[in-house]
Structure formats: structure tokens, C-alpha cells
Amino acid sequence: MIAAFSISPGTSDDTGGVAEAVARAIAVVRASGLPYETNAMFTNVEGDWDEVMGVVKRAVEAVAAVSPRVSLVLKADVRPGRTGQLSEKVRRIDDLLGE
Length: 99
Hints:
The chain has a 4-stranded antiparallel β-sheet with strand order 2-3-1-4. The protein has helices at about 20-30, 50-65, 85-95, and strands at about 1-10, 35-40, 45, 70-75. By secondary structure, it is α+β, with helices and mostly antiparallel strands. The chain has a single domain (about 1-95), classed as Alpha-Beta Plaits, CATH 3.30.70.930.
């Protein structure tokens, strides 16, 4: 499965930023050893259900350690038996577009 998720603290720093709290979540993803991609709005992580949901839970807990409230947006593509889809899904589209 691939899960795209965004975690944000309910509070911000004195400039309105949330980068430090979000970095705690990304550190959890990186330490997981699962394939992932991070962009400006979401992090995509790939693995089996329990692995991915465990990472998401630990990432939420990491942000909750510095914020009394946490927002989580989660979207999942559950396709058992498939791996390597972080890059394959994009490659299929690029192939169709001739890129």
C-alpha cells in the first residue's frame, strides 16, 4: 500500500511556522526504512498495512509530543501484492505522456 499523509501541529512557532514539528514526523518516516517521498504538502510512504499505519501513528505521536493538538490528513492506495509503486505509478503516466 501507499499512504499519502500530512501531519500538522495545532500550534505554530512565533512566526506561524510548523517546520520544526513537521520535521519530527519526517524523522520518524526516514527512520522506518520504508520507501518514502516527501514534497511540500504530503509524505508518501510504501509498505504493508501494519508497517505504514505504524509509521503514521509514530509520526503523529512525535508531533503530539510538542503540540497539544495534531491534524492528520491520510489517503491510501491499498493494492495487496504490489511493491515499488511509488515510482511505477509515475513511470506509467510518464510513458503515456511520452516523457
